[in-house]
Amino acid sequence: MPCAVGLRRAHVHDNPVFQQQGTGGMSDDSFRFELQCTDGAARLGRIHLPRGVIRTPAFMPVGTQGTVKGIWPQDVRAAGADIILGNTYHLMLRPTAERIHELFGSLHAFMRWDGPILTDSGGFQVMSLSSLRKITEEGVHFRSHLDGSAHFMSPERSMEIQHLLDSDIRMQLDEVIALPATVEEQARAMQRSLRWAARCREAFERQQAMGRAIFGIVQGGVEEELRAASVKGLLEIGFHGYAIGGLAVGEGQETMLRMVEYTAALLPAKQPRYLMGVGTPEDLLEAVARGVDMFDCVMPTRAGRHGQAFTRFGKLNLRNARFATDTRPLDPGNPHPALGGYSRAYLHHLVKAGELLGQMILSLANIAYYQQLMAGMREAISQGTFEQFRQRTKEQWQAGLPD
Q1: What's the total number of domains in the chain?
Q2: In what order do the strands lie in the sheet with 140-143?
Q3: So what's the pLDDT on residue 24?
Q4: Are 230 and 176 a contacting pair, CB within 8 Å?
Q5: Which pairing describes strands 294-297 and 213-218: parallel, antiparallel, or unpaired?
Q6: CA 1, CA 285: separation in Å to the nearest integer?
Q7: In angstroms, rounded to a whole number, what is the distance separating the alpha carbons of residues 376 and 183?
Q8: How far apart are CA 137 and CA 266, in angstroms?
Q9: Quick one: CA torsion of 331, 335, 340, 342, rounded to 10 degrees?
Q10: How far apart are CA 237 and CA 20, in angstroms?
Q11: Given the DSSP bridges, would you call strands 140-143 and 150-153 parallel, antiparallel or unpaired?
Q12: How far apart are CA 207 and CA 11, in angstroms?
C-alpha cells in the first residue's frame, strides 16, 4: 500500500536534549524536518527552512567556490536541486567570507542562488593539507594552498565564516582522518571531533542565527564502538541534524555501507541524516535503502569535465571511439535537454576536441540524472515500492541501453 504522505511529522525540538539546551534563539518554525513516511529503512521527508523546502532523499550539488562548476545556477535549480553546498575552506581564502558579507550580505546573493545552502566546515580540506597543517586542541594551523599564507581554523572560526556566508545549514568542524588507520587514531580523532562539536554548538548559540541550522558529524572510522560513542556524545550536545562523516576515504564500498547502516540506525528518526561526500548513483541508492536523507559529492560535475556521463543505462565514457558515429542522445526519450537533446556523436566530438561546451553539457546531464534518480526514489518510497525501484534501477544500469 502507498504510504500516507504527511502521516508522520517530526520536529527538531522532539529531541529532548536539544529542547533542554535551547535552540540558539530560533523560533519553533524556523527549522523543521517532516518525516512523511518510510518504506523499509528508506525515508521520505521535507526539511523546512526560511529560504525553501528540501525534499528528501536529496542530493546537493557541490558549489565549492560559489559555483557548481560549469553550470548556471538557474540550470541547477531547473534540474531539480533544492539545495547546494558551499565550501568554507575555499571561500575563506578567496574571495574571503568577510568580503562576501560586506558586499553582498550572503553567499546566496553573491552567486545568485535563491534556495538553501549548506556549508561544510572546512575540516576535510584542511585535514587533507597534511604537509601544510598542524593540529592542536585549539584548532588547525595551516598554510593556504594558493599562496602559502598562514591561517588558523578553530571551531569558533569555522562557525564565524559560515555565519558571515549566512548559510542555512552549518556543519561542525571535525577531524577527518584517512583510512585505513589504527583504532587508537580513529578514537583520538572521534573524541576531538566531539569536543569541537560542543564548541561549535556554543558558537552557533552565540550567533543567534534565526532560521539557520547546525548539524553534528558522527566520526569513528570503521569501528562500531567508536561510531556508537560518537552518536551518544553528539546527542548529548544536541543538533538540528546529524551527518555521517569520515567515510568514502579509502575503506571500500562494502565497509562504507556497513558503517552507514549501523550508524543510521543509531540516529534519531525525527531528524535528518546526511552522508557526507558520497558518491556514485549506486552509493546513493544503497544508502537511501539504509536510512540516509541527504548527500553531496563532486562526482557528477567532475565526471562531466572528464567526458563521462551517468544515465539510466549506466555510466558512459564519451571519449570512447564507439560513440563517434552514435546518433542517439545520452538517454533516449529523456525530457531534460542535456540528457535527451544532444547526440553521443556530438558529445564525443566536443570531448575529443577539448571544447568547454562538452564539459558543460555533460556536467549538467549528470546533475540532472542525479536529481532524476532522487526524484524516482522519493516517488517509490511514497508508493511503498522502493525495493522494486532499487532492483529495477540496478538491473537497468547493468543491462545498459540495447544497441
Answers
A1: 2
A2: 133-135, 140-143, 150-153
A3: 30
A4: no
A5: unpaired
A6: 21
A7: 39
A8: 28
A9: -170
A10: 10
A11: antiparallel
A12: 22
* Same domain, yes or no: 278 and 316: no
Ordered strands of the 32-39 beta sheet: 32-39, 42-49, 52-56
Q: Is 339 exposed, middle or buried (0-12, 13-18, 19+ CB in 10 A)?
A: buried
* Element spanning 143, H or E: strand 140-143
Which among 260, 289, 261, 253 is positioned nearest to 275, based on CA atoms?
260
Length of the chain as a residue count: 403
Kindly list the distances between the CA atom of residue 135 and the CA atoms of 4, 171, 222, 249, in Å, as whole numbers in the listed order. Answer: 49, 19, 22, 19
User: Sign (positive/negative) of CA torsion 360, 365, 366, 367?
Assistant: positive
Q: Are residues 310 and 232 in the same domain?
A: no
Residue 1 maps to a domain: no
Position 29 scores a pLDDT of 61
Q: Kindly state the percentage of the chain with pLDDT values over 90.
A: 86
Q: Are strands 42-49 and 52-56 parallel, antiparallel or unpaired?
A: antiparallel
- The catalytic residues are 120, 296
- 327-370 tens-digit pLDDT: 999 999 999 999 999 999 999 999 999 999 999 999 999 999 99
d(Cα 201, Cα 73) in Å, to the nearest integer? Answer: 31
CA nearest neighbour of 193 among 258, 127, 253: 127
What does the longest C-alpha to C-alpha distance in the chain come to? Answer: 65
Same domain, yes or no, for 116 and 257? yes
Which candidate, 257, 230, 258, places its Cα nearest to that of 243?
A: 230
Whole-structure pTM value: 0.94
Residues 273-296: pLDDT tens digits? 999 999 999 999 999 999 999 999
What is the rounded CA–CA span in Å between residue 345 and residue 291?
Answer: 40
Task: Confirm if 267 and 238 have CB atoms less than 8 A apart.
Answer: no
Which residue matches cell numbers 575563506?
92
* Separation CA 64–CA 50 (nearest Å): 23
- The cell for 69 is 562548476
Q: What share of the chain is helix, strand, coil (3-state, %, to 5)?
A: 45, 20, 35
Where does a domain end: 252, 276, 297?
297
**Domain of 334, in residue numbers:** 306-399
